[in-house]
């Protein structure tokens, strides 16, 4: 006869197994200085074509490749990302790199995300400008075992990589944060290049004027 304790234990295990659902999770890491429509379009296209359950928009803390004088406060960048994605239920803001601080190595971040949700499949989305640098990423061999890389084409960059990347076809969008910052400095319109919430945030906080 199965004792009551054993039966309860079995039921609990079954319950846990059904409540932990394996998800397909995309990650769009970046400086988002500021976030623009290019980010939203690539995230949406990849989510749709790879049937992802969600996409995490993950602003980095100290971007190693960006001149520190140009990168505005992480808090502002995170708020603008939140403003960009708030009306898409599949998009979420992921703050682990900002919370951890220091240089943001994707390997460290992915270990953290994996520890939180070992059941998920992770797809790290990168633009065609970054793919060529993948072999140089910190602990790339180990990182490759825990995420799949998804590449999207970027205007001005050829697709040239021996690295295993899943290529997703997205319309070429010739918008970058650099272009947005330049337009603001020159007092030109950024309307339709960023979401209305981001445009308003930039205006209110007088960002990128010098
Ligand atoms: P900056 O001009 O300051 O370098 P960015 O526009 O490249 O910024 P990031 O936040 O650095 O924006 O980009 C995050 C990720 O999104 C990177 O992998 C980048 O390659 C990709 N990405 C950004 N904009 C586009 C775009 N228009 N088309 C394709 N990929 C893009």
From TrEMBL:
Keyword Nucleotidyltransferase: yes
Alphabetized InterPro entries for the sequence: Cyt_trans-like, NadD/NMNAT, Rossmann-like_a/b/a_fold
Catalyses which reaction(s): nicotinate beta-D-ribonucleotide + ATP + H(+) = deamido-NAD(+) + diphosphate
Major enzyme class: transferase
Gene3D superfamilies the record matches: HUPs
GO molecular function: ATP binding; nicotinate-nucleotide adenylyltransferase activity
Pathway named in the protein's UniProt entry: Cofactor biosynthesis; NAD(+) biosynthesis; deamido-NAD(+) from nicotinate D-ribonucleotide: step 1/1
Pfam family, one: CTP_transf_like
A Gene Ontology BP annotation from the UniProt entry: NAD+ biosynthetic process
Record-annotated Cytidyltransferase-like domain positions: 27-182
Keywords tagged on the record: ATP-binding, NAD, Nucleotide-binding, Nucleotidyltransferase, Pyridine nucleotide biosynthesis, Transferase
EC number from the UniProt entry: 2.7.7.18
Coiled-coil residue windows: none
Family classification: Belongs to the NadD family.
Function (record text): Catalyzes the reversible adenylation of nicotinate mononucleotide (NaMN) to nicotinic acid adenine dinucleotide (NaAD).
HAMAP family associated with the record: NaMN_adenylyltr (MF_00244)
Matches recorded under NCBIfam families: cyt_tran_rel, nicotinate (nicotinamide) nucleotide adenylyltransferase, PRK00071.1-3, PRK00071.1-4
Protein name according to UniProt: Probable nicotinate-nucleotide adenylyltransferase
